[in-house]
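Blinded run. Sample ID left blank on purpose so nobody reads anything into the name before looking at the predicted structure. Input follows.
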Amino acid sequence: MIKALLSAPLALSLFLSPIPAQAAPPSKTEQTMIATVDAEAARHLALLEKLVNQNSGTRNLKGVRAVHDMLVPEFAALGFTVRWVDQAAVGRAGHFIAEHKGKKGTKRLLLIGHLDTVFELDHPFQKFERISADNAKGPGAADDKGGIISMLAALRAMHKAGTLKDANIEIVLTGDEEEAGLPLAIARADLIAAGKRADAALDFEGLVQDGGRDMGSIARRSAGNWKVTVTARSAHSSGIFSAAAGEGAIYPLAAILTAFRQELPEPNLTFNVGMVAGGASAAIAPSGANAEATGKSNIIPGQAVAMGDLRALSPESIARAEAKMRAIVARPFNGGTATLEFEDKYPPMAPTEGNRALLAKLNRVNVTLGLPEMPVLDPLKRGAGDVSFVAVDVDSLAGLGPASSGDHTADETVDIPSLWRQAKRAALLMTRLSREPAIKR
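Blinded prediction complete.
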């Protein structure tokens, strides 16, 4: 397992397509797996509908547990031992963890997905809807109940072909991927521990397509939040800019945000401003979903606040950005003070040689299946995910779930054929990986 970051020449080649070795046609066992995915498509689509119709917004703790309960018999029937890890300590439902013990001395695979969606009980988007032969809408139809279906279809295909019995596999389906509980040291402890036990990690979140091509994800950027709060003197507006009254809170906040935009940029780094409020009083709700402000045109604003996120591809990039932001916020201005807070959420999944080697193995599967090669996806084209918590410890590949559009909106639509394409890829890849010797530690 190679976890060192790519050297400069390798980094330059990161976005070049891996060239797989010539592969033979599917073996008899692989043909069985391919045929099983196709034969059980209707069964799995019916299960997807059932899962989608059960609301499992992150804060709907009973709903998340209900999805877990629906999945237990599906995985138990394949020989997995399933357990529920309660997460009441962080205000979340819990995690689905399943283990399948296979042949000793072979690679241990970690499969990652999530039970929850962004759509809570009060959201109008609640039901599965088949809109065409190839498409269906619904909350979580792709993200990530569709990913779970691709995973399950792959495992059923392996079971049918007889390749699952020798495979060492651990599955972690988190119950709070869309809004992780805090502290993360508790909320992600079981996932991190599973990553340390694994020899390869496969993330069943969505497949990203670019220019009509299925892409391979060997990197994901981090996700963290920041908040700038400016407090100034509030007075009658006739005195603004004077030494006594100062310039209020909104002008300095605007200057700080402008400086962020001008001084922070570097490759693979983004820093969004998601919400701004200012006035005689101003505050962003603890949930981060709304803000309140009071004031009048003739009152110098005494408070201003802005919040946003920060995403990067390496801890070093995050550290540089945060240091620059602190220096900018510390700059003096007329009549007040500013503070800066950071909240770390998802670490980066760096593009490593080990991750790239996993994609090369997936591309050999693509040759076997008669599918086009999957080039490396630009990490700017996807968000953060749970796989990043384990990627520092184990070679990882993301994006083994289905293709989709409109994720996180009421137009979330899953591409149905991609469910089965991804299941076939995963079944063959997991079978091949499971026959490799375990990594010596």
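Unblinding after everyone has recorded impressions. The chain has eleven helices and 18 strands.
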